[in-house]
Structure formats: C-alpha cells, structure tokens
Design brief:
The chain is mainly alpha-helical. It has 3 helices and no strands. Helix content is about 60%, strand content about 0%. This is 11610_t:CDS:1.
C-alpha cells in the first residue's frame, strides 16, 4: 500500500499534465493509462484537490 500511496502522490504532482484525461463524475474518474483501482484512489484525491 505504501508504494501505491507514493505513486498517487507522484501522480498528483503531475496532475496538471494529466488533467486532459480526467473526468470527475462522483467517484468515477477515467484515464486510458490507468487501471480501475488507481482511478478510484486517484479520483478521491483529485476531487479533493479540485475542491480546494
């Protein structure tokens, strides 16, 4: 799990570069380069970042 959290943090730092492939719709965020579990985990963080 720690490695996944590190990956999430790295992805969050790259969020501006990836924003074109994100779609926030509740907890569903899709990107062709990510698997479903990452979409859910990253989606929660991205939604929080967008709300901030």
């Amino acid at each position: 799990m720690q490695a996944t959290l590190v990956k999430i943090l790295k992805d969050m730092m790259m969020f501006n570069n990836l924003s074109a492939c994100w779609r926030a719709n509740g907890s569903k965020i899709y990107c062709g380069r990510r698997n479903a579990l990452e979409n859910v985990l990253l989606g929660r963080n991205v939604s929080a970042a967008q709300a901030a």
